């Protein structure tokens, strides 16, 4: 992802969405312009790896920042799971923010060059991808982008 830092973040493409605000049927990064976006690509089947820890961290950060009008959380589940499976994973991990199921054949994962999960990227309020190495410093990086 080094080559993407400092450039407009690729749009996300999802076939199904969960946890969207009432009346909303999809989520686009363009709709989130003006906000720092915390975007995570993940798979619910990754229950032994880093996935559950990252999901827990994101849930806690979301709870802390959900009322902030300048931060948005979203995630994209890989397209190998059915929409029903993704719905179950969202419930299992108690994810409160929007989750999309990647459009076939892995359009969002491919556009973000995802080769390991979870992969979290931070996008600034102008839609520019700023960070992708976030382990152990996600809150610090969100704060940094909010100050800019």
Explain what the structure shows.
- Strand 2, helix 1 and strand 3 form a beta-alpha-beta unit.
- The radius of gyration is 14 Å and the shape is globular.
- The model has no long low-confidence stretch (mean pLDDT 95).
- It has 148 residues and is α/β, with parallel strands linked by helices.
- The longest helix is centred in the middle third of the chain and has 15 residues, at 51-65.
- A six-stranded mixed beta sheet has the order 1-4-3-2-5-6.
- The chain has helices spanning 51-65, 83-92, 107-111, 138-147, and strands at 14-18, 36-42, 71-77, 99-102, 119-123, 129-131.
- The two termini are 22 Å apart.
- It contains four helices and six strands, in the order E-E-H-E-H-E-H-E-E-H.
């Amino acid at each position: 992802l080094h080559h993407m830092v400092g450039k407009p973040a690729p749009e996300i493409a999802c076939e199904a969405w969960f946890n969207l605000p009432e009346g909303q049927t999809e989520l686009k990064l363009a709709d989130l312009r003006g906000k720092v976006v915390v975007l995570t690509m993940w798979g619910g089947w990754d229950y032994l790896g880093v996935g559950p820890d990252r999901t827990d961290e994101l849930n806690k950060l979301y709870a802390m920042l959900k009322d902030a009008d300048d931060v948005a959380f979203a995630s994209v589940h890989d397209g190998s799971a059915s929409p029903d499976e993704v719905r179950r994973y969202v419930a299992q991990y108690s994810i409160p923010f929007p989750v999309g199921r990647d459009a076939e054949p892995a359009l969002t994962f491919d556009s973000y060059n995802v080769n390991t999960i979870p992969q979290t990227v931070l996008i600034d309020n102008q839609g520019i991808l700023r960070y992708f190495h976030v382990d152990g410093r996600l809150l610090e990086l969100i704060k940094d982008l909010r100050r800019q």
